[in-house]
Specification:
Helices cover about 50% and strands about 20% of the residues. The relative contact order is 0.10. It is of the alpha+beta class. The protein has 3 domains: about 30-240, Hypothetical Protein Pfu-838710-001; about 245-390, CHAD domain; about 400-525. Strands 3-7-6-5-4-8-9-10 form an 8-stranded antiparallel β-barrel, surrounded by 4 helices.
Amino acid sequence: MHVNHASVTSVNLETIAAGGDMSLSHGRPVKTNSEMTGTLWETELKLDVDVEVGATVYESLLASFGRPTARHHLISAYFDTIDDHLWHAGITLRVRRDGKRRIQTIKVEGGKAAGLFSRPEWECDIAGETPDLDLPTAALLTKLAAATITADTLQQVFTTNIARTLWLVDSDGATIEIADDDGTITTDGRNDVIHELEFELKKGTRAALFTVAAKIGATVPLRIGVRSKAERGHALRSPDVGEALEAEPIALEKDLTTAAGFQAIAGACIRHYRLNEGLLLEARDSETLHQCRVALRRLRAALTLFKPILIDPESIALSDRLRTAAALFSDARNIDVLIDRIADPKLLAKLTERREAIYAELLSAIGADSFRALMLDLVRWISTGSWLSEMDTAEKRGQPITAFAGHVLDRYQRRLNRRGRHLDRLSDENRHKIRIVGKKLGYAADFFGTLFAGKKTRRRRQHFLEAITALQTELGSLNDETTGAKLLKHFTPLAVPSKADTTLATSSKNQSISRAADAYELVKDLKRFWR
């Protein structure tokens, strides 16, 4: 499975809002605008527009905010080295044509959360159509990329052709620029349609971005955007474009607060979901559906792991809404797993027909206004929710993320050790409960892993992840067998399995239970990488 992404970045949203430093995951600090002349901070909320409702979006903007402030035809060429060194370092180099102007822009693509983008950029006017590396800001390329970048090493990798319509809106003491972008990305003979809204904060608080966006979202269907135009262009160049995407690595910095750590993790989970949701809406692929389900499951796990700082009514209500939304994917995933195990042609045809109906129901549900609103509400809540001002959790929110992570990992390790005793003698129901605990422990190890450095620690973490994955694989297989048997009984209620089939199934189950018990013992006995 190939994953297209730039260097994964952890961002302390609280410090950014206060004008503090933003640190890239590869360890090179990017200075704030108070420290670096010519630096602009761009904070924007991005929403994707379904192609079929493009005209409706314009009408809604016109009705809500009056005539546009300006219109631009923007043609942008993106440059990189032959091995995409800038992109892998989290940097974008662009030359944009806007009428007679030629504008060179350098952006740090780090700090991506679902829908919200906070990133420094440096731009200036130039004379030509290709990057001017004699400018003072161009020296940043070499500094940020940790490599010498020259005109000879650069090539044009893709272009965007955008019709941009702008509104400048005052709301709740904030000034927000709304850009309605409609156009295409082109690279190597491939094209992709772009239609998105960008709400850029010029003055005021982030909460105002969501207020204005919700006003438009109430009249036309919009989805949280998770990719910049640069990322979409690089993804279009990949031979694996259109394939399901696994979760990207999350790199947390040790100096993050617990609140900022949660924001980074939750934002990454929503991004994982949205990257796959678009693919699922285009094609009913079982692996893409699986990744959507995994993304929501990871997000729900994050809410559970960070429950000590999410005790306010808003957080509890959103957790309930998310649980209901995640349940929509269960039937489709269960029937996909069952179909993979069926050889009988008649039963397979019957199950395939039912699968089509289930997928149709699912796609209808995730296309509904309520589901789109949930995604926007989650992003708003992560960034500006009332949990960030809850007095009772202020101390826990402000503690270092490393200390919090250690306590969480200890708690779930103890829980797994206690519940997993005599695993081979437990009921299916109790083994499923162990699976849930093990899943949360595995997610915690994944989320928090980069906080615990050192060669020996990394090796221990790798062994731990391998052991917990083996445990989850066996317990997952046992759960699939139980769920599949119930589904099969539903579709073939009069069928009676042969004695040979029953014996074979029992033998297979016993082997899985034995392997799960062995894996549990290994997880229990391994040295903790976080201690």
